[in-house]
Amino acid sequence: MSACLGPNGFDTRPTSRRDFLRRAGGGFGMLALTSILDREGLLASGVGHDARFSNHDPLQPQTPHFSAKAKSVIFLFMSGGPSHVDLFDPKPELIRLAGQPIPESFGAFKTRRKVAKNKLLAPVRPFEKHGQSGIEVSEFLPNIAGCVDDICLLRGCHGDSVTHPESVYLMNTGSILMGRPSLGSWVTYGLGTENRNMPAFVVMPDPKGWVKGGAPAWGNGYMPSVHQGTILRGGESPILHLDNPKGISADQQSRTIDFVNDLNREALGSGDEGSELAARIAAYELAFRMQTHAPDVVDISNESQATRKLYGMEEKQTADFGLRCLLARRMVERGVRFVQLYCGDTNGWDGHSDVEGNHAQLCAASDLPVAGLLKDLKSRGLLDSTLVIWGGEFGRMPMSEGSDGRDHNPHGFSMWLAGGGVKGGNVIGATDAVGLRAEQDKTHVHDIHATILHLLGFDHTRLTFRHNGREERLTDVSGNVISRALA
What we know:
CATH architecture of the largest domain: 3-Layer(aba) Sandwich
Structural class: alpha/beta
Number of domains: 2
């Protein structure tokens, strides 16, 4: 403690506004108010900011608002904006009108590139019906097409921004602005974790390049940093700085961490359980436990040859994304709450030119592994408790950019959900005749987030975090559960 005293003997540690008011005399009033509220039964209960930080363990398992099938999430994020009209949203009218300007009946439409003057571009691959549900899927995705009876396809999605970073933030945090907690942070805040030896929220970026918008897409925002995503990379050291320095034994490392955390706990005041210092203590302890347990999670040497083949591990084109999909299954199997995989480098699915070539490459790399993940989860009895999400930050225009590309389209696009209480073999919503705008049973990103939280057992209007005097939530002041998506 003496290290925190200045030359005049005063405590030089920074003081928050709340600490100042408490130390200035407000603390007695707070105690009295707490006593009154407790006696009247008005203290927050269940999931909420008071319950969340009423203990020293913000990641202990929590009970959601109501019983739900989904216990964990795997979010397959297709970075760059996959083209819905070329993958999941067949448009006969787009084929018929190909080569013509968009009809005036669709209304004036302007973007920063003025693509409304460009001619309509037909889907670059044909669509076929699949499964007992008869859902039409592009020839680009033959393996995912074989799983359509387990998939709920949302064809009427729409967002708020035409640019990548803002749309990435919206899809991941519920706001086009940087600095809000990500979906994974909200899930771990609400549910805690079932495995204290692994991070509750794991992120696997594409090794060829990070998503546009970067780390805030999986950040903790105004929540304690214990809720931020932990990066898992490929290679021999998937988690950086996890190994002990050379010459340092496990016992020495343990004693060092205990010593550092003992000093930190001396500085941890009452009521600071949700502070950055508390998160740092938890991070040191988690990192030490991970040194023993994380290598087992990423070691796939015991996986069967059939499982490796299922994920495309034997093919160069699918091996990379297949490995990450396999690791995602191994993590949810071991109690990791939220896993997010990014498919596509910094540009990814951003097919401004040669959309056929761009999507052919990325579909070839991801189609088999994604289907393998769904089949593997199902065969192991994990799909019922694991919610799988597929989608990007937006879709693409029905008009051409140049001669063979497509521009960004946040006004209408497709996503899908599977497992975790989702009604499979189901199509909800539709874009207009050429795929420009969501038109029927439209689902905003807030609606998608509300549905995800519902499938995990939460009323999205009640899962809140107090920040700057306001009860914040993932869906802001909007969002409705997509009831037709529920099994």
